[in-house]
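Quick bug: Glycosyl transferase output formatted oddly.
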Amino acid sequence: MPQEDRSLPLASPDAELPKLSVVIPMLNEAAGIETALAALQPLRESGVEIIVVDGGSTDESVALATPLADTLLTSAPGRAQQMNLGAERARSAALLFLHADTRLPEGACKLISQSLSTNCWGRFDIHLEGKSRWLPLVSILMNLRSQLSGIATGDQGMFLRRASFEAVGGFPEQPLMEDIELSKRLKALSPPACLRTKVISSGRRWDQFGAWKTICLMWRLRYRYWRGVSATQLAKEYRNAR
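Here's what came back:
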């Protein structure tokens, strides 16, 4: 079982270091990245570090994000690689991995700090926002599945102690299910803090490809991953299905 140093404080005694580092992977998010980062500026002003890691955008994402982030990094494409690079450059003892199309609830920083005082990691409940009338049901099912399994997905705003992240080796650099695999490894350290407060995430994937088609696809992929099919193979199937 991985071991961690639970004595590590959530915030450094050095007042110049951030109390939380938010890592945001990005790829061709010009349509929404400016709005997403603008919403984080009050946190940034309060001492939260914002790190954006671009995976090779070909639109205006980088230009739009640069003035609204403390650090903008460039990485090879791949969400796991991007988030690992962001964590490597982060300066806080507490990390939050946030998708570019996910918005935090009010008081998120305080909720994270309180949770990490007793748990080494956690996540928020999620509310999917979009056109499909099925999205409220999808949100309920996602939250229930996560509550029962102790497995979080990236769009739920996963947060954790830096020591815990390092203890399990960070995100596995695989093309799909990196959040599922990280959750499994973190469960060996402690159960997650499952916050009922909701992040709001875009339902664009469900709107674009159809709610039930997307639900069936994701459940099938997760089941096959549980049965041992490689993430590389599943990523190919995911791309073909889309």
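Actually, after a second look the formatting is fine. The longest strand covers residues 193-202. Closing.
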